[in-house]
UniProtKB/TrEMBL annotation:
One of its GO terms (biological process) is porphyrin-containing compound biosynthetic process. CDD domains: Radical_SAM. This is Heme chaperone HemW. SUPFAM superfamilies: Radical SAM enzymes (SSF102114). Belongs to the anaerobic coproporphyrinogen-III oxidase family. HemW subfamily. Residues 1-236 form the Radical SAM core domain. The keyword Protease does not apply. Keywords: 4Fe-4S, Chaperone, Cytoplasm, Heme, Iron, Iron-sulfur, Metal-binding, S-adenosyl-L-methionine. One of its GO terms (cellular component) is cytoplasm. It is found in: Cytoplasm. One of its GO terms (molecular function) is coproporphyrinogen oxidase activity. It comes from Sporolituus thermophilus DSM 23256.
Length: 380
């Protein structure tokens, strides 16, 4: 059986003003203890997953590359000693510009990393400080150049639109720079002001100069059209790539396949059960020292929940939902079970049937949440 691994490194140099992820700055004194704990958790999984083959690994955060090279090296040694890795395994590491150098990138390559994801967000210098980013636009370009010099060709850049004081011309500038760099994968996300962030406080006080809804929609439309023209395939709502450069690990999530999460705040999904480790770093470290589970929540998903999640995750992809796989997995006809919902969405121009698949239209991609919510158990 195939398994994806997600490993969470909850540290960053400085927390961004919009970020609500479980990541923390000013915890350098815990780096060593955290990797010790993570290696213990990895070792504990050996017996349970001995018959599984790992075909994707994703190390995210936070910013994994704030860790010293020797600690990252220990992590990779623990992974390879514990899990059976497929020869063509995809191994991704997230990084922020300004936290990488050529020796570190070469070391990552030597440890088997073959994909990098840089959190650039924008190439417009005046916008970066407004986000609380600590890198410069020049460092974003330099990060890609260093990665190439270290032997990486599979590189993703995260970009954002709908930012404070951002204009459509700024979106165009960032997309132009990204495509000129020739990176084969781009993730393009709209800003969401999340509760508990500094942005939420500023927004509530009327101090966050965000584009209005019409402006943000225009940015979305521009990005989709620009990248299509540049030769990038949109294979998921927010993800674009040159042919053959889809992120295999993220496809696991959208295809509702099993993955194991390791580290503080990491989620797992195996055999219809979802569980999550505590997001608190010291609590996670202490649990591992005691040989105890760091699991904070565990949920056995009922059949209807699994069906709904399978549907809306599959529909996020350009390939859409394969009704044959659906019937094989759940033993019912997708078309019969959801005929009324499908007809209503099709009449609104949000979905289309293509052979045995249901896919979002371009309009459906834009208003995906309307489609996804239609398949929730109390709606379908």
């Amino acid at each position: 059986m195939k398994l994806g691994l997600y490993i969470h490194i909850p540290f960053c140099r400085q927390k961004c003003l919009y970020c609500d992820f479980p990541s923390y700055d000013n915890l350098t004194h815990l780096y060593q203890d955290y990797i010790d704990a993570l290696c213990r958790e990895i070792a504990e999984q050996k017996s349970r997953f001995s018959g599984w083959v790992v075909d994707t690994v994703y190390i995210g955060g936070g910013t994994p590359t704030v860790l010293p090279g020797e600690l990252l090296g220990r992590l990779f040694a623990s992974l390879t000693a514990t899990f059976s890795l497929e020869p063509a395994v995809e191994i991704t590491v997230e990084a922020n510009p300004g936290t990488v150098n050529l020796p570190l990138l070469k070391a990552l390559r030597s440890w088997g990393v073959n994909r990098l994801s840089f959190g650039v967000q924008t190439f417009v210098p005046r916008l970066l400080p407004l986000l609380g980013r600590v890198h410069t636009a020049e460092q974003g370009i330099e990060a890609v150049e260093l990665a190439r010099a270290a032997g990486f060709d599979n590189i993703n850049l995260d970009l954002m639109y709908g930012l404070p004081e951002q204009r459509q011309a700024d979106v165009a500038d960032s997309l132009s720079r990204a495509t000129e760099l020739g990176v084969p994968h781009l993730s393009v996300y709209g800003l969401k002001v999340e509760d508990g962030t500094p942005f939420a406080v500023s927004h509530a006080a009327g101090k966050l100069a965000l584009p209005d809804e019409t402006e943000e929609e225009a940015m979305y439309d521009f990005a989709a059209a620009f990248l299509r023209q540049a030769g990038y395939c949109r294979y998921e709502v927010s993800n674009y790539c040159l042919p053959g450069y889809e992120c295999r690990h993220n496809l696991k999530y959208w295809h509702y396949q099993p993955f194991l999460g390791l580290g503080a705040a990491a989620y797992s999904f195996v055999d219809g059960v979802r569980w999550a480790n505590t997001p608190h770093v010291t609590e996670y470290i202490q649990a591992q020292r005691k040989g105890a589970l760091a699991i904070q929540e565990r949920e056995v998903l009922d059949r209807q929940t699994q069906i709904a999640e399978f549907i809306f995750l599959a529909l996020r992809t350009a390939a859409g939902l394969d009704s044959g796989i659906f019937q094989e997995r759940f033993g019912i006809s997708f078309w019969d079970a959801y005929r009324a919902t499908i007809d209503t969405l099709a009449q609104r121009g949000l979905v289309e049937r293509c052979g045995n698949r249901l896919r979002l239209t371009d309009l459906g991609m834009k208003f995906g949440n309307i489609v996804f919510s239609s398949f929730l158990p109390d709606k379908a």
